[in-house]
Structure formats: C-alpha cells, structure tokens
Design a protein that fits this description.
The protein is mostly helical. Helices cover 68% and strands 0% of the residues. The longest helix has 29 residues, at 198-226. The radius of gyration is 21 Å and the shape is globular. The two termini are 31 Å apart.
Length: 358
C-alpha cells in the first residue's frame, strides 16, 4: 500500500532533484555580476513564470527573493497532485500552515506599527493561488488586532493565536507575542507528527526535532554570546522540542563560549562539529564568524540527513520532507549570492557561506 501511495510522489521528486542548481550553476551566478542576467538565468533554470520579461528591468533583489519563495511553495503545492495517502496529505497541510503563519506575522506587524496598506500586499505577503482560503479579504478590512482575532478564530491558528493573545493583551510586546506564537506553532507541528503512524511518525518527529535543535542552538548562541542577553529572556524564544531545549541550554548559561560549544557538540550527535577548539585557533576570528560557521555545519549535516531520507525512505514521508529542505537551502544559497554580489563580497567569501547540495 505504501508503494502505491508514494511511488508517484517519489518519481516527481526525483525529476525535480535532477533540476536543482549545481555547484557550476552557483559559479555562473557569481561570475555574472549583472542582476538582470542572473534573474534570467535563474528563471530559466528554476522554471519561474511569475513575472514577464518586461518586468525584469524593474525587479530588485527583495522582489526577486519574494518571487522565488512563492515559486518554491508552488512547487511543493504541485507535489500534492500526486499525494494519495493520509500522511502525505497531512504533510501538505503543514506547508499551507507555514504560508498562513508567515502572512499572519507580517499582518500583525503591519497593524501593530500602523503601517497597514493593502496596496503594499504583494511586497510582503506570500499570496498563493488555489489555497483553501485567501488572506485578501482580511487584508482589505483589518486595521486592528481585534479584527485579526475574529478572522483567526475561524482557522487552524485559533489555538496558538488565542494563547499568545492573552499575554500580548497584558504586555503589548509584539516580540514576545511572536515568540509565543512560534512556540505554539511548532507544538502544533509536533502534534501533527504524533498523529501519524509507523515510519511516517518516526521520520516526521525526527525531522522536526533536528530542525528545532538547529533553531535553538543558533538562537541561544546569538543571544547569549553576541548580545549578552540573560537566560530569562532567551528561554522565551526556545522551542521545547528536540534534545536542545531549555533544560539543556540552562546548563550552558554559566559557561564560556568555548565550553558551551564543546558541550553542544557532545549533545548533538547527528551533527559532526569535530574538535570545536579549532574555531578558536585563529585570533582574528570573532563570535559572529564562529556562530555562522556552526550554523553552516548544522545545515550541511541536515542536508546529508535529507539526502539519506530521499535515497532510503522512498516510500514514506521522508522523501518529500528531505526534498523540501534541500530546495529551501537552494533558495538560501541563491539569496546569499545575490546579496553578496550587491554588497561587494569576493567570490571566495560568498562560496564559503554556501551549502553544497550535489
């Protein structure tokens, strides 16, 4: 039965995996300094058909990033055409939830900071065709949090929004509000994973735990050792899923940066940090450089894990999960190249921040 459910999906994924940008493609982008040339190259390679050729002349980097995000989500959406099993359909429900959650956070910021303009909708929101419901109507009519709550009350976000809204009504702190919403959202994803069966349940929970581990490590290192924040502030942003939750991170609070990294490397066995002392050999390296290096190592380990899912979990939710992560990293690589070229970084500097996918 699993083969019947997943064979069409896996065939579609394999076809798109063969079209992913190669290292040679990244080098082509790096050598073509002209933005318009790079846009045409990317549109051809990624089959982006969201903007006319005439519009390319006016396309700026931010708008290009927005279009590429939408193109990526549309690609995920098309996989749903081949989905037949209950588990895979749940997976696509999560993707829709991500899009809605992203839009909801943008909407909250717009209303809270009184910058709400419907005319600006395409600049910020991910408006996806053929969704189960649209944000268009609420975007036209919302001008306060109360109206947002009435809208959200009819959606899957009712639970996570209402819990966070109670605290926001007291503190009026949007950052705390978004942190609480994010934590509740991840809990919702975890509950969805728990509702699956067999290999799908095991893989989806393992995948989510690794994602949360990476997010928590990056958040902790950045806030603790770059911004010198107290742990009482940091723990509000930590997702209590995976092996790097508040319990473990609290044990790092009184350690030095070097000691904390060593303890983290022992905790995250799936990610090979190697000898963390090496990070401190160069006297000129700073905290930002080390944290960025740690993030790249974690992402590279996640790419390796996703490759394994695609190759050895063909007839489960593992293959589409792995595919989606690889495509997200591909998008991140593209954005790093475009921003790096704009700022004036050397090819070598940009390459050192890319994740190899093939």
């Amino acid at each position: 039965m699993r083969i019947i459910y997943y064979s069409p999906v896996y065939s579609y994924l394999k076809a798109h995996l063969s079209k992913m940008l190669s290292w040679q493609d990244y080098e082509t982008l790096l050598k073509q300094k002209d933005l318009k040339t790079n846009i045409i190259f990317l549109f051809n390679k990624l089959s982006v058909s969201l903007v006319s050729v005439r519009a390319i002349d006016d396309l700026i980097e931010e708008r290009l990033e927005h279009l590429l995000k939408i193109n990526l989500i549309l690609l995920f959406q098309k996989i749903g055409i081949f989905a037949k099993g209950k588990s895979i359909k749940k997976f696509f429900k999560l993707i829709y939830m991500f899009v809605d959650f992203y839009n909801l956070k943008i909407l909250l910021r717009s209303v809270t900071f009184e910058q709400y303009k419907y005319d600006d909708i395409e600049k910020y929101y991910l408006m996806i065709p053929n969704k189960r419901y649209y944000f268009h109507d609420i975007l036209r009519n919302v001008d306060n949090l109360g109206k947002i709550f009435l809208f959200v009350d009819r959606t899957v976000f009712k639970k996570i929004f209402s819990k966070a809204f109670i605290d926001f009504d007291k503190t009026k702190d949007l950052e705390i509000f978004e942190d609480l919403m994010s934590k509740e959202f991840y809990k919702l994803l975890s509950d969805e994973a728990d509702s699956l069966f067999g290999a799908d349940k095991r893989i989806s929970k393992e995948f989510l735990e690794k994602i949360c581990d990476m997010e928590n490590i990056y958040t902790f290192l950045r806030l603790k050792f770059l911004y010198n924040k107290e742990f009482v502030f940091i723990k509000q942003k930590i997702i209590n899923i995976g092996s790097v939750s508040n319990g473990f991170l609290s044990s790092l609070n009184d350690l030095s940066f070097k000691e904390a990294l060593k303890k983290i490397s022992l905790q995250i066995r799936w990610c090979n940090f190697g000898n963390t002392d090496i990070f401190f050999k160069n006297e000129n390296i700073n905290v930002v450089d080390i944290i960025n290096k740690i993030q790249l190592i974690m992402q590279a380990a996640m790419v390796k894990y996703c490759r394994k899912l695609i190759n050895f979990e063909k007839f489960s939710i593992g293959a589409p999960l792995g595919f989606c992560y690889l495509k997200q990293i591909e998008l991140n690589n593209i954005i790093k190249i475009l921003i790096g070229l704009k700022i004036g970084f050397s090819e070598e500097e940009i390459k050192n921040n890319l994740i190899i996918l093939k």
